[in-house]
Design brief:
Helices cover 37% and strands 26% of the residues. With 232 residues, the protein is α/β, with parallel strands linked by helices. It has one domain: 3-Layer(aba) Sandwich (Rossmann fold), CATH 3.40.50.300.
């Protein structure tokens, strides 16, 4: 579905990505791993059209998206759950969900009712404003808002960072269900144990380059990779 080839990007004169290659196939969960500042969020921004690459290419289902504006990327079928959640603070939970509803590929897979079944807390908070929600509830809302675009590929940047254990558990349960239902996902998170249970493949970034890739079984066996690139 998603193909990134030899991608380079950065900010002003500071280059962050150096020839990154990445693929996400249909119904596959792929993670981007690495310490802070290694280029994971920059890669997501370049894919989503929030940052223009200086070299390389991005395509989705064979359609070139390199340098396309974010709304074109969304129309192609990619949904983003951004770092920091960024829910609409003065809209209700229901309004946040309805605001992004789209059905570009036939009958919509996701509706407000479907999102509320995935995250029952959102049904309980339906009339609450975005700013009135806890951090975990805001993250659930951000995921639900992205699902309301009915994406073919869902990208989550720091899926559970800074959340309480109960909220993290609910989100991992939801991501496990999405994987079971065939949702393609590109995921950034630091909860390595949870990631290894849900993901098919992992890519490790170090200073803007892919330094390792493989399955969860391979990563579990590679203590040196985890110690060198993923521990603080």
């Amino acid at each position: 579905m998603l193909r990134v080839e030899k991608l380079e990007a950065g900010y002003d004169t500071a280059r962050v990505l150096f020839g990154v290659d990445l693929e996400v196939r249909a119904a596959e969960v792929v993670t981007l791993l690495g310490r802070n500042g290694m280029g994971k969020s920059t890669l997501v921004k370049a894919v989503m059209g929030l940052l223009r690459p200086s070299a390389g290419s991005v395509s989705f289902e064979g359609v070139a998206l390199t340098g396309a504006p974010p709304f074109r990327v969304a129309q192609a079928g990619i949904g983003l759950v951004p770092e920091g959640r960024q829910v609409f603070p003065t809209l209700t939970v229901e309004e946040n969900l309805v605001a992004t509803a789209a059905s570009r590929f036939g009958r919509p897979r996701w509706t407000r009712e479907g999102v509320e079944r995935l995250f029952p807390r959102l049904a309980q908070r339906r009339r609450h404003l975005g700013w009135q929600l806890s951090g975990g509830e805001q993250q659930m809302l951000a995921i639900g808002r992205a699902l309301m675009t009915n994406p073919k590929l869902l990208i989550l940047d720091e899926a559970t960072e800074g959340l309480a254990p109960l909220a993290r558990a609910e989100i991992w349960a939801a991501l496990t269900r999405l994987k079971r239902d065939g949702q393609a996902i590109l995921l950034i998170d630091k909860s390595l144990d949870a990631i290894m249970k849900v993901a098919d493949r992992h890519l490790v970034l170090e200073k803007g380059k892919v330094v390792w890739s493989g399955t969860s079984a391979a990563l579990a066996a590679e203590a040196g990779v985890r110690e060198r690139y993923l521990t603080v």
